[in-house]
Amino acid sequence: MPAPARALTFWLPTLLWLLLLAWFSTDTFSAEHTGGILLRIIHAVYGPVSQPAFQEIHFYVRKSAHFLAYGMLSAFAFFSWRATLASAVRWSLRWSVLALGLTLLAASLDEFHQSFVASRGSSWHDVALDMTGAFVFQIAIAAWLSVRKRRA
To answer: Which of 18, 62, 74, 122 could bond 134 through an S-S bridge, CB–CB 3.0 to 4.6 Å?
Structure first.
């Protein structure tokens, strides 16, 4: 396989995840649209809930999605960088820093984009939450690869 095609293979999960995040940034996934779906799920599983309770649940579900989605982006990016900038080691600070940089860029652009979508809001708090998820995932990857190295 030629080098550019091989590199694309390594980056495909990261690129697809970035496209998914861009889709999540649209009006389709605004709070007013996701709320109805979540409310139906909660009613089906738990029965009726008060409006204040639902608002709180909805808030935490949406913020958890930020944490997890950008944590996953940083994980995909880590492994893309690891394959692209191959080394004999299993983990490199360089790959983690590059993954975090890509995640910061994507999170910042996401919030910038949302500032132009009428049904969405833009907040640096979301970027901070996204980066928290990215850092946690990078720590988990480093720990996981360290354990695998000791077992090998």
So the answer is: 74
